[in-house]
Amino acid sequence: MGVVEKLVALLEVGKALSTERGVDRLLPLICRETTTVCEADRSACFLGDRERGELWTTVAEGLEGGEIRIPLTAGIAGQVVQTGEVVSIPDAYADARFDPESDKRTGYRTRNILAAPMRDNAGEVLGVLQVLNKLEGGFNATDAEIVVALAGQAAIAVEIAQLIAALNQYAQRLEQRVTERTQELQVVNKRLQEASRQKSRFIANMSHELRAPLNSILG
To answer: What is the distance between the alpha carbons of residues 1 and 142, in angstroms, rounded to a whole number?
Structure first.
């Protein structure tokens, strides 16, 4: 694939990012484009879960609807999270940082890896975009530049999804508070109506009680 085709692929991802807000659609698209542009076998997008100390993904080509969870510091992806740097491994099984556990679980054989951090606007690493097994030769500097750019797009997609989720949660809390306030006002309104009825009954009773002696006095 030539430079022009690679730029076109990046533009396509950017266009999708501007029109599509669903991270479930965007991340698989980014993985597919990464695989195509880098002329590789497959890609995966790992997200960091710092509370559980894990990297996880359901967006990995060849995963077939399952998920992968690994310790946050494990393997090449964990190395990228810890250092925030691009990592290129020409021979996975010859590198001490490589964790073959995922290969054992999936039956896949990793030969070479290129992984880049997904950074948010504040520079925090949200996850890792990883591409595996260059079809011919090894990953080069151009591949690394492309993966870094696409990792940035993936980070934007995740940030948008997180923002939308936060806004939805805020809207739900606000709606719940409005509902509670409305119910409180309804209770207050019922009490006011009951007080008004009691006042009317009191005035009517007092008028009746006063009317008899006044009629006697007037007579």
So the answer is: 11
CB 154: neighbour CB atoms within 10 A?
A: 30
Instruction: Give 136-145 pLDDT, tens digit per residue.
Output: 888 988 889 8
- Please state the φ and ψ torsions of residue 33, each to the nearest 5 degrees: -65, -40
Contact 146, 37 (CB under 8 A): yes
Query: How far apart are the C-alpha atoms of 85 and 116, rounded to whole Å?
Result: 7
Query: What is the end-to-end Cα distance of the chain in Å, rounded?
Result: 115
Residues in Cβ contact with 42 at an 8 Å cutoff, skipping those fewer than 6 apart: 31, 35, 60, 61, 62, 131, 132, 133
Give buried/exposed letters for 162-195 (b at 16+ CB in 10 A, else e): eeeeeeeeeeeeeeeeeeeeeeeeeeeeeeeeee
Tell me the per-residue pLDDT of 89-141, one tens digit each, with 9 for 90 and over. 999 899 888 888 777 877 888 899 999 999 888 888 888 999 999 998 889 88
Tokens coding 178: 């409005």
67 is written with which tokens?
Answer: 């998920």
Q: What's the pTM value of the predicted model, to 2 decimals?
A: 0.68
Query: In sequence order, what E strands does 61-193 have?
Result: 68-71, 87-89, 113-119, 125-134
